[in-house]
Design brief:
Order of helices and strands: HEEHEEEEE
Shape: globular
Largest sheet: 7 strands, antiparallel
Number of helices: 2
Number of strands: 7
Radius of gyration: 15 Å
Strand content: 35-45%
Distance between the termini: 31 Å
Amino acid sequence: MLESQGAFYPYAVKLTEAGETEMATAPGGSEDTLVSLQEALAGQRSGLRSAAVVAAVHLQSLESDAIRVDIEHRDGAALTIVIPYTRTKLRKKVERGEMQSMVVEPKIWGI
């Protein structure tokens, strides 16, 4: 999507108790899409093993656009992964930078 469209709409990926993966988007009209996705996942957490919220963001600290992935597991592990990227103007290709990760407080199982 980044190469063909230049952006993508935030979405969630869930791993159910049955081991199936499902994708979801935020409900229409949401003011804060990321919070809406996290709240929706929190409401479903009893039937989930893990979940992730993926979004394209701009990071002032890196002066770069980035893909941000917030991943949580029901047993308490929670990480944020950031992959900076730039788009070349002529070919519209995406060049990824070095991935960074950090342990964070859970939002889905912490609500």
